[in-house]
Structures are given as structure tokens and as C-alpha cells.
Amino acid sequence: MKETLENQFKHVAIIMDGNGRWAEARSHARVWGHIRGSRIVSEIVEEADDLGVESLTLYAFSTENWSRPLLEVKTLFLLLKKFIKKEKKRIIANDIRFKVMGDISPLPDETKSLIYELETLTKNAKGLKLNFAFGYGGRDEIIKSVNCFIKKNPGKELTKEDLAENLLIPEIKDVDLLIRTGGDMRVSNFLLWQIAYAELYFTKTKWPEFKRSEFRQIILETNDRERRFGSVEKTDSLNENEMRADENLRLMSSSKTEWRGN
Ligand code: FPP
User: Fold this and answer.
1) In the predicted model, is pLDDT for residue 49 greater than 90?
2) Measured between alpha carbons, how far is 177 from 179 in angstroms, rounded to an integer?
3) Domain spans of the chain?
4) Which atom of ligand 1 is nearest to the CA of 59?
5) What percent of the chain clears pLDDT 70, i.e. is strictly above it?
6) Model-level pTM?
7) What residues are labeled active site?
8) What is the CA(146)–ligand 1 centre distance, in A?
9) Homologous superfamily of 11-225 in CATH?
10) Which of 98, 197, 250, 262 has its CA 20 to 30 A from that of 167?
11) Does the pLDDT at position 4 exceed 60?
């Protein structure tokens, strides 16, 4: 059931990390961690929908993951296929719009057909926008967007809006909250353009142990964060400190400044 929670995070993105370490710590092969991790995905999708999140983007396979052992790569392909088969009915019934972003050309034809079919069936869905980043890299996405723009507009200077409009899924807009499980604190080439002003949350929990209750807790806990987007609240008059700063600024402005770099 959908909640009335005033959730400021419209677009939540998750780096589902820690599968391999979770499995190895239990003397299992790394792929076991991915298999167990894939079970958590449906739960988190359901919770995001319940919490009124508008877009949920999950990092399932990065461009860098191609260098992993073939068994691991094949397992991740298989898990995507199984997810679609298992969740298709529920996705349609819950009016969820399903999309995959990234280069899926090396995937088996059957998996690609399943992806295209579910994307088509849900293209007009009005509920949660569920995106799987698969064969995805943030730098690749930006380069692709720029090239796409140049092709359509030869000789024209690119703006921020142009770049955003040519991203893989332009309508999902900026990420509001980026969560990474597994304990590492990096963004790993994920949605580089879209996370410019995202709130970041890192949890030590490995993805196979991540639960809907922790997801909910993160949303509730970070929902109060004040997001200033590089700005501060404006007041009409200056206080004492600001007057002093203003005077310093006037003195500084007499010296010449210069931009470095291109
Ligand atoms: C990182 O863990 C995780 C991945 C590379 C894949 C994430 C995939 C899933 C959670 C399952 C896929 C599910 C579907 C539905 C497609 P890691 O192996 O890098 O873990 P480590 O940092 O512990 O080594």
C-alpha cells in the first residue's frame, strides 16, 4: 500500500555491492552472493514503490564488470532473465515502468527479447520508474549523449540541458539519494551526470543482507537532510559578520582574478 510520507527523494539509485564478499565469507563461490542478492531486489522495488519513490535505478552490471570471470558474467545475465520472468506479472499489475539502461548487445537473444517485451508492455505505466543499469558506465553515457547531440546539431555549442536531454533515460532526472551497500565509499562510474547534487548514503550491510526495513530506515533518516544545492537562504539585510565580509570583498575585488584551465 502506498504511503503518504512526504518523501523528498524522487529518484533513488542503489549500488548493490558486497555480494562477492558476502559469499566468500561463507565459503561459497562469489556467484552465490549474486544469486542471493537477486532475491533482495524484488523486496526493495516493492518498498520503494510503497514509499512513493518515483524512480529507482539499480546498478546490476557495469561496463567494468565485463572483465570478471565468464561464470560470474553469465550468472548476472541469467539473474536478469530470471528476474524479468518472475516479476513480469507483478510489474505490470503495479503499473511499474521497466527499463534497462546500458549496452545489452552481448546478452543472449532470449534475454534481450524479454527486456524489449517488458519495456514495451510497460512504456505507458504511470507508477514507479524502475531502471536497471546493465552493461552501464557513467562516462560512456555522457560521451554517448554528447555524440548524439553533435550528430543532431553540428556546429552548435552544447548546454547542460542538451546533455541531460540526450542521456539514456532523460525523463528520470537527477538522482536525489544514492545508496551504496557493502561498506565501500565510492560512486564507481554510476550515473555520474545525474548524481551531481545527490545525497549519499553508505551502509556496511552487504547487499544479500540488505532488507526492506533498512532501506526504509535510510529514507526516513535522510529525508530530513537540508538540501541547499550550493545555495544558502537569502536575507534582506546583512548582519555584522556579513558586513565585514562585504568590506573584505570590496578590497579583494581591486586585485585581478583569472580562471585557470581550459
Ligand atoms: C557487486 O558486488 C554487485 C554486482 C556486480 C552485481 C549486482 C547484482 C545483483 C545484486 C543481482 C542482480 C540481480 C538482477 C535482478 C539483475 P561484488 O561482486 O562486486 O561484491 P564484492 O564487492 O563483495 O566483491
Assistant:
1) yes
2) 6
3) 11-225, 229-262
4) 7
5) 94
6) 0.90
7) 17, 65
8) 29
9) Decaprenyl diphosphate synthase-like (3.40.1180.10)
10) 262
11) no
